[in-house]
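The data layer described in this paper is built around a simple, fixed record for each protein. We quote a single record here, exactly as it is kept in our systems:
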Amino acid sequence: MSDHGLEIIDRTVNDTNHWLNELSSQLGCEKKQAYHVLRGGLHTLRDRLTVQEASHLGGQLPHLVRGIYYENWRPADAPCKVRDQEEYLVLLAERIGDDQVTEPENAARAVFGLLKRHIDPGEWTHVRGMLPAEVEAMHDAA
């Protein structure tokens, strides 16, 4: 047990802060905005995946980020139909919120890059394969 509490709790708080700091640095924004980008990016991606694939991706996330990922999830509505990059970015912009300081395409690439660095490469391949070609191309550019 750590000095602050349960080791797993301390680790997930540290991991989540690390992820937010990475996004904040990459996007040149405040940590609060990085949180909105992470949350919106995860929700937009999650809702485009099948229930099974969304669950597999969720299992790759730090515990605290996993809670953010599953917040307000409605598996019965999955996957939502997103046919192209423009539609994906509109959904992402709505989920990031009105206080956007980041272009949705930059936000998408930043979240994709973060996931690409931190999840299993095989899982990354599965996630990419479930997206429209234009959105998948943003993954590749991340």
About this structure: The first helix runs from residue 7 to 27. DSSP finds eight helices and no strands in the chain. Helices lie at 7-27, 31-46, 51-58, 63-70, 85-96, 104-118, 121-129, 133-141.
